[in-house]
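Progress report, Aim 2. The chain analyzed during this reporting quarter is listed below.
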Amino acid sequence: MHENFFYTLKVYYEDTDAGGVVYYANYLKFLERARTEALVALGFSNKKIKKDFGALIVVKSCNIEYKKPAYLEEELKIRSFIKLVTKTSFFMNQFISRGEDLIAEAKIHLVFINTEGKPMKIPGNLFEDLKPYFCDSIKI
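Predicted structure tokens for the chain:
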């Protein structure tokens, strides 16, 4: 069973185009915020990971399928979960919804890199702390 993380946001004017529809690139920002809050829920942050492990988490690839538009002043919920983990990276699935309507679905591949920008193994302590959240999907 995958642990789900939820993040709720309100669509502001700055998020929309002239027609009041969320501009497609802003979904990337929404997804990033949700991933960041999922890390915080686990007791980590991007700053803490950099400070404690000398590591950064970067997006290697992102595939988004837009299902329906979202509009100005709507409340959206983003559900995120870890799908698969390798030695140096992990994959997350994220779903943006408005009530029962699925707005967008994303598959994100995230990679750990060191401060020189080179891929690195997920730090042991971090790997162990996160293990309960993805133990069914570890790929070594």
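Residues 28 and 101 are 19 Å apart (CA to CA). The chain has a mean pLDDT of 89. These observations will guide the mutagenesis work planned for the next reporting period.
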